Amino acid sequence: MNKIKIIIADDHELFRNGLKELLIKHKDIQVVDCVGDGKEFLEAIKHTEDIDIALLDITMPNMDGFEVLNRIKNLNSNIKPIIISMHDDGIYIAKCAKNGAYSYLLKNTDQDELIKVVRIVHKGKKYFSPKISEKMINYMSEQTISQDILSKKETEVLELISMGLTNKEIASKLFVSKRTIETHRANILRKLEVKNTAELIKKATKIKLI
Questions:
Q1: If 0-12 CB within 10 Å is exposed, 13-18 middle and 19+ buried, where does residue 131 land?
Q2: Looking at the DSSP assignment, which residues form a beta bridge with residue 35?
Q3: Which residues pair with 56 in a beta bridge?
Q4: What φ, ψ does residue 27 adopt, rounded to 5°?
Q5: Distances in Å between the alpha carbon of 5 and those of 24, 81, 158, 174, 194?
Q6: Are 34 and 20 spatial neighbours (Cβ–Cβ below 8 Å)?
Q7: Whole-model pTM?
Q8: Contact yes or no for 189/158 (Cβ under 8 A)
Q9: Alpha-carbon distance values, 153 to 18, 79, 175, 185, 188 (Å)
Q10: Taking Cα atoms as reference points, which of 100, 192, 90 lies closest to residue 146?
């Protein structure tokens, strides 16, 4: 039997060792290495042949999971990455999917689901559960809506407002008149249907404009 060869990258030793013990109970799975951060992972795959799947955390020291995903494509395109994370935000899921993740699992995923996903991904198929897919789609929809609301210049002004700059300071930074910034600010408030800066920051954060 050709076993599914897996490498685990997670900075919590207890979690990665527990994951390893869970996986090796299955006769068709072999854990070839366990590492604690992104740099260790990249070094490991340079010296380990025939890895089928990488189980990656996002939040790791030295190099996070996002950067690891980007590097895998150049170092070993045969490796199929599966993210296992505590983060269930749409922005994390969408970013991982965009960067080549074959699946995205939460750390509270039950073991039957994990094994099922490992076997699906090993066959070259991507798998995102309905719940994870919904979060990703909702985030991407919000991004599309947000991008259509404000002009490029208004978005730039909004970012500076969120940093606490006054109209005068923003005008100086963008080399325009204070009156121009006042007009942009008024348009932003109108488009986002808010009355003041506090409401503006709250809503812009909610719909991920900033």
A1: exposed
A2: 9
A3: 9, 83
A4: -65, -20
A5: 10, 12, 48, 53, 54
A6: yes
A7: 0.71
A8: no
A9: 50, 41, 12, 11, 10
A10: 192
Looking only at the bridges linking them, the beta strands covering 103-106 and 80-85 are parallel
Percent of the chain residues past pLDDT 70, beyond the cut: 96
- Write out the DSSP string of 122-148: HTT--B--HHHHHHHHHHHHHHHHHHH
Cβ proximity of 64 and 37 under 8 Å: no
User: What SS3 class is residue 207?
Assistant: coil
CA dihedral 102, 105, 109, 115 (to 10 degrees): 20
Cβ within 8 Å of residue 33, ≥6 positions away: 7, 8, 44, 48
Residue pLDDT, tens place only, 47-62: 877 899 999 999 998 8
pLDDT in tens, 105-132: 999 999 999 999 999 999 999 999 999 9
Give me 118's structure tokens.
């490992």
Give me 62's structure tokens: 């030295």
Q: What are the structure tokens assigned to 76, written together?
A: 């070993």
Residue bearing the bigger pLDDT, 152 or 84: 84
Instruction: Name the token pair of 188.
Output: 């932003």
